[in-house]
From TrEMBL:
Protein name, entry field: ABC-2 type transport system ATP-binding protein
PROSITE patterns in alphabetical order: ABC_TRANSPORTER_1 (PS00211), ABC_TRANSPORTER_2 (PS50893)
Coiled-coil residue windows: none
Main localization (coarse): membrane
Membrane-topology annotation of the record: Peripheral membrane protein
Pfam family, one: ABC_tran
Highest taxon of source: Bacteria
PANTHER family reported for this sequence: ABC TRANSPORTER ATP-BINDING PROTEIN
Amino acid sequence: MQTDVIEARGLTRRFGEVLAVDAVDLRVGQGEVVAVLGPNGAGKTTTLEMLLGLRSPSAGTVRVFGADPSTAAVRSRVGAMLQDTDAPESLTVTEIVDLVAAYHPYRLPTGEVLERATLQGHRKRRVTQLSGGERQRLSFALAIVGDPDLLYLDEPTASLDVGARRLFWQQVADFAALGKTILFSTHNLEEADLAAERVVIINAGRIFSDGTPRELKGLLAGRTLELVTDADDAVLAALPGVRGVLELPADGATADRPGARRVRLQAADAEPPLRALFAAGHLVEGLIVTEATLEEAFVHLTSAERAR
Ligand SMILES: Nc1ncnc2c1ncn2[C@@H]1O[C@H](COP(=O)(O)OP(=O)(O)OP(=O)(O)O)[C@@H](O)[C@H]1O
């Protein structure tokens, strides 16, 4: 049986009234590349921090390589690229890489690290002389210098342009090809699809879905229906193939009609819910059907969930 690199059970974190992470169960096996996808404030960073042993859970347990993630033995096998990590500005790229390497029991040679992070040409540059994208690559270099078996990347491409993103994910793929386990967070569905073989969607602190990008697309792909109707939320949510219901602001079509409102439905297909609405005698007007992009479907699904 494959052993788990990460095993979280009932992982929960509160900040006062805010339930940032709500009973998350997550198992990640050796060699998996997993994307944690979710909107702002979904709980991605807090989850990663608990998996890293940087933040203690309010409830639940985390085991990484079968042990507490805050222990030295586990930390020596883990690399992390977190948001907003500052490197000492007076040091050169090579000096920082060597400095961080000194804390690790095993290390990759400096030349290999710089090559993997495409920083060979910037060895003697100081941090202040690096562009935003180059600084991000330096963070990646520092995350991998200890030759980690498990790598965490928290929104690693947030400040990169399209070309730099592609290059970055190629570097991650090369590192993953060494048999490493990688867990990264992102807002970007297309990026999760490109770089991960498994996508965990987290929303409002909970795992919303967990599967391959292909399964995720199957779950999200479909039609967006906008219409004016008198059916209430419970009726709409129970229509065949409907996955999400969102109320839209009132407009001229709804103003003078009691009970009528404009809604947006996310559905596997357009016909079955419409047929059911007509059959039940509900008002259906101003209908617009569009093919949902993955991005739209994701935003719609997670916002509908949040509104519940
Ligand atoms: N130190 C803190 N004190 C109070 N609330 C916090 C703290 N850290 C996070 N939160 C709250 O917990 C929730 C989850 O935040 P978290 O940063 O984990 O989300 P995220 O998915 O990483 O978001 P983003 O994509 O915006 O980085 C948010 O409501 C946030 O405001």
